[in-house]
Amino acid sequence: MNAQRLMALIVAIVISVPLMFPEGHSIGMVNAILIWSIFAIGFDLVFGVAGMLSFGHAAFFGVGAYTLSLLTMRMGWDFLPALGAAGVIGGALALVFSYFAIRVSGLFFALLTLALSQLIYIMAGTKLRMLTGGVDGIAGVPRPDLFGIDFYDDGNYYFFLLALFVLALLISGLIRISPLGQALKAIKSNEVRAEQIGFNVQRLQRSVFTISGIYAGVSGGLLASLIFYVGPQMLHWSTSGDVVIMVLLGGMGTLFGPILGVAIFEIMREWLSTQTSHWYGILGLIFIISTIGMPKGIAGLIQQLWNRIMPGGKS
Amino acid sequence: MSLLEMQNCDVFYGKAQALHDVSITVGEGEIVSLIGRNGAGKSTLLKAIMGLNPIASGKRMYDGRDATRVSTEMLGRSGIAFVPEDRRIFATLSVDENLRIATVMGRKGAWNLERVYELFPRLKERMTSRGDTLSGGEQQMLAVGRGLLTNPKLLLMDEPTEGLAPLVVEDLIKAMALINAEGVAILLVEQNLKVPLKLATRQYLIDNGHIRWSGKTEDLLAEREKIEGLISL
Amino acid sequence: MSTIVIGLSMGMLLFLLAAGLTLIFGMLRVINFAHGSLYMLGAYLAFQMVNVTGNFWAGLVAAPIIAAAIGALMERVALRPVYNRDHVYQLLLTFGFILVLDEAVRIIWGLEYKQMYPPELFAGAIEMFGSSVPSYRLFIIGFGAAVSAALFFILDRSRYGMIIRAASGDPEMVRTLGINVSLVRTGVFSFGAGLAALGGAVAGPLFPIELGMGFNIIIDSFIVVIIGGLGNIRGAVLAALLIGMTRALGYSYAPSWVDFLTFILLIGTLILRPEGLFSRKGRTA
Amino acid sequence: MSGIAENKSILRCEEIEVSYGAFKAVTNVTYEFKPGFLYGLIGPNGAGKTTLMNALSGRAQLSKGRVFLNDQEITGQSPHARTWAGLGRSFQITQIFAEMTVFENLRLAAQAHRFRLQPFWRPVGKFKEIANDAERVLSEIGLEGFGHVNAGSLSHGDQRALEIGLALLSEPKVLLLDEPLAGVGHDVAEKAVELIRKVSQGRTVLLIEHNMDVVMEISDEIIVMLAGEILASGEAETIKRDPRVRTAYLGEEE
Amino acid sequence: DEPESFKIGAVLPFSGPYGIIGKGMKQGAELAIEMRGGKVLGKPVEVTWEDSETKPQPAVQKATRLISSGAQMIFGAASSASTAALQGITEQRKIPLLVTISADDKITRKNGYRYTFRTSNTLGMEIRMALEFTKAAGLKKVYGVGADYAVTRDGWDAYKAAAEAAGVEIVGVDYPPLGNRDYSVIIDKISKTDADGVILIVTGSDGVTFLKQAGQAGLGKNKVLFGPVLQDEVLAAAVGPDAIGAASGVRYHYSLDNPANKAFVEAYRAKYNEWPDSFAGEAFDGMSWFLDAVDSTNSWDREEWVKAFEGSVRENSVEGRKEMRACDHQALQVGLWGVVEKGEAPYPDLKMKITNIFQPEVLFPECEE
Ligand SMILES: Nc1ncnc2c1ncn2[C@@H]1O[C@H](COP(=O)(O)OP(=O)(O)OP(=O)(O)O)[C@@H](O)[C@H]1O
Ligand SMILES: Nc1ncnc2c1ncn2[C@@H]1O[C@H](COP(=O)(O)OP(=O)(O)OP(=O)(O)O)[C@@H](O)[C@H]1O
Ligand SMILES: [Mg+2]
Ligand SMILES: [Mg+2]
Predict the structure, then answer these.
(1) Mean pLDDT, chain E cut into blocks of 10 residues (369 residues total)
(2) Atom of ligand 2 nearest to the CA of B165
(3) Whether C205 contacts C143, CB under 8 Å
(4) CATH 1.10.3470, applies to C2-111+122-272
(5) Which of E102, E73, E77, E122 shows the shortest CA–CA distance to E328?
(6) Are A126 and E81 inside 8 Å of each other by CB?
(7) B72 and C284 in contact by Cβ < 8 A?
């Protein structure tokens, strides 16, 4: 066993709570955790692996949600093809973004993606309101209708989400250790050298951006179906901010860190808010303390504790 | 009296020990050289002197006082200057600013902007260029010039001639002799042995983090064979 | 014609809102998302001072000073340990600041809106070009110009700017030169926090003072900072005026496109001249 | 003289110019590089040597002129395309992947060379051939024991060796080396010179170096730059005696 | 088997800038429960308050949890977006949703949501009030300013058509973005027209900003500023004296002269030591009415409650007569219209004076899809 496995175990425990307590009230929360985790896992491919800080992922997330909603509700598509389309559209939009944004790097990249996604946010709330329902959004987004299972029951929907989550995790895990993932890490580490040894840096960046756009599109579609609703709030830059925070909290650049970050974030939101009306401030304190005290997020902390408990256990 | 004394210093990177029980002294106005192969620990020692690597055990005496716990900026203020091996030019500052920033603390002495520009005319030509657009050699000149401008009592130079054209190396050697004559002590690390052999009065030989030999430059030449045997591998 | 005067005042106001961010962002390379919260805090502090003393000017002076002290504390306690980490960790930190500051304001001042009025001296409106322009707007133009001149003098003319820029690349090396980097950093952050609060105090008479007031200005401020060029005070002034004018014209001819115009301006700048429309040198390598 | 001496040039630049604002770092440089030759490029600091190399490898934009590799025009191509076309280089200011191990550094270079499209369906460890490439070069550059060390914590000299290793792995036909010996200990330098000699077998090498003993000894032909232009070129002996080169660069011999 | 208690899940904004809405609604609803002895169907009422953060996702997530822990009804959501999101889940779970603030017309529509009930105003009716006011005040030329989003645009279109039909000239209209920061150019533009009225279809801080800036430019001196939801005591306090004279639709007001309201205001002031705002009044009203309807069924079958509530009439609501229309679950009610004036103790410095009360017949068109 090593720290990686320990983290995997923690993640497994968190997401299997509904299996252990099928009657509990945690299913809704775990479902949200699964969906946001898909988003965060995909986001971390860009952020943690390739080192590009994007503030534009809200656009792919939200556009995925609208795609699924409109296709199922207005065009009468089935859920699964619509979900696929959500991923495709999310990825396509990411590809378009990348053509603009990859010309600059660092903070400029972050702000350019932010600006592009804000444009889409504004569009959705105002000019495209015939399509998007404007500021008030669209209610009544459906869930899948498969094998006669009632996915409107959160307990059943959990399994559907779990399957997608595992798939997303596997793909991302593979990408990370594949030559592609290594190449992206190289670009993050030293772009000049990466280009000189023959990596087509821009193409690699575009491809990972697109892949994470697909993740975002799919997870956005899933969230819309989880809460039966889609609105422009999902496109707002603060949604991008949320996913950045989650990934940082959990530990960027690690496979399980983002999931832990999502879990902590959601649990905090659910639990703290029932404890005190000052929970915003407390959450803020937690952010501050964990930035200072956990340089590499929760994943880093676990790694550190592990190393202390199991000295010499180099992997 | 010695200006700097490092006594029995151990330095670690994480768990790996890079310096073992290292002691060296640099006298007032002296040029001392530190030689050793790649990875021997030369740069590590210079950084430890400057306070950039923490000293795990041992003592730093400077100017007759215990300076083991003194911070980098206080060391800098009290007259130690550092010319690092990888130059560490301030990328976003212009050449001129890179030099002027060294004068902020306002230590009095023989060095000023004009004099540095005189020593490296090339820098004057590139005065308004950003640091990161300079050629490798120009950056090296800038790093040396920046070190000089703090008007130090002790100058730590890590491979200052790396990447410099032969003519410039000669100028630099002359300049080092000159500033030494003005009373500045120099601790010099060089791969190009010509330079320390020409300038330094005493030599330390470091290998694998241990000081293996120290003595006068004449002795180094005389005992060459024996000394080469001291170096591992 | 009056549109131009108003546009000018909108631009100067934008500059005052963004000045603190330019400073912190440009010099410390800290993306201070809490800028908006400090701005809000400034407005509340000014309100409180005015309430106690009955004097607008007391608020304008006291709010920045108190906020600067809070900023110094924030920097010492929280920001200092994370400088030598990847810049992205500052995001988590400054998000934390937002929540804590907002909560503090909520606890101290409650949820009700607060209000402030322009000082006696600038209470009325002045007839100009056939419109009546509130004289407080003219005050903003003058005050903004004065602040920008002062900032320009302090930063571009002094060596602090140089030190900070150097330290943002290689703080260790700056230390070897004998310079106390952390002191300078604390100074800059606290100064930036004070400027944010100054912006809040100036904006107080124009907008409702409420908990959400800081949220919208963050993006506006970022736009000014980017278009002007990071840490470039002169650029920030010009960018703010450019945006102010664009908006003013936008409001007169196509109000529903105002936000678009602003973002298009930003995107265009980032794509064509990422170093900022008004940066002095072209970026090299 | 080593290698196959053909008359056809392998790398050719025509009247190239690189300017930064008003400043011209390289002007009007025309040169034909013959296959199999080892060229020494010398000149004072700031003469434009690195910039010329940047122009050849695609890191600097030309404001004028054209570059050909194997008679194919490569002007305007990106650096990675040129690497694929057979142009490798090392950097004067070390460019390595500091957070990764030495072995990973080399494996990256190997994988960049092997795959045009980076596979994402299999762990990198399963590709034996790239690991083998990396191992081979690891020993070639004398860093055998350092495979698992983080590249960033290597000493300066060892990083320089890794720098060359990374360039070698792209198996270039033309290899550009920017001061490979700078910072390399004098004991190791001899080995490094041997290494350069060895890798120059069967390829064209352009070597920038301020260590005159080495340059004069191993170059087939020497090019001298001054203020962005080529001042002189020819065999070592002629260059050594050229008075212009002496005043501009070499200085008087002791 | 009857549950131990009657569980209400309340999802309201408590944190952030909209916390003030949540606070008022909570106080109003709590009083409603207290004044009926804390019981429904003979069982104690148990309310769980959750923070919606004014965002759809948390709102739905928390409602889901409340429902799965046995909530019999959901109360809330302040923003129309969150309410719309809640409608999805409550419809799914067949749980009544009581809306007492969100004004988007779409929330209640014919053959729409079976389990949603709104006891408060719709924006459509408030626009019609504005129109009635335009006529009553004799305005001839009107300039429109609306936040740029769907509901306001629809509202404006309706207003414009009706106003023009009534012989009012529309001088111009502008749609600055929602959450707009600076209206000075638009104010200047309007001041140069000969409009005698300016209708502001903006809410919350946008309205406050406009009135503040308009005051500084003296716009209100010769033009009537009014809007469907422009002002109430809370917002007027934020504007200051410049608010005086602004006219607005009022959702509820403590000055209404009827016995039910007097009793409520007295109890409210005794309990919280403040005047009830419109969030509190509407919440009180809706909650008491709904619980009465539940009680009247004597059954724990939620379908029965729905049937009882739709079509029920409340003669003694704090705003007078209200009727829950069966076709769309929208409560028909009078429309209150008022103007900001200076207040004397014990009233706040600025208070609304109710100037017009419009009858439901003119405010609510036939039930339509
Ligand atoms: N940041 C670091 N982290 C870990 N180990 C390091 C670090 N820097 C240096 N080392 C190790 O410490 C030892 C001494 O390195 P140092 O840089 O002092 O050598 P040096 O004598 O200056 O060599 P060179 O001549 O190549 O510059 C080397 O083994 C090196 O790998
Ligand atoms: N991106 C750039 N912007 C502006 N000037 C530049 C840029 N790159 C190089 N220069 C300038 O061009 C000149 C030539 O630089 P180059 O690096 O080619 O010199 P070099 O001959 O390699 O010198 P050295 O031997 O010191 O490495 C230098 O004066 C340098 O300042
Ligand atoms: Mg060294
Ligand atoms: Mg060079």
Answers:
(1) 85 82 90 88 88 84 85 86 87 89 83 86 87 87 86 85 87 81 84 88 86 85 87 85 88 87 90 89 90 87 87 86 86 88 84 87 77
(2) 25
(3) no
(4) yes
(5) E122
(6) no
(7) no
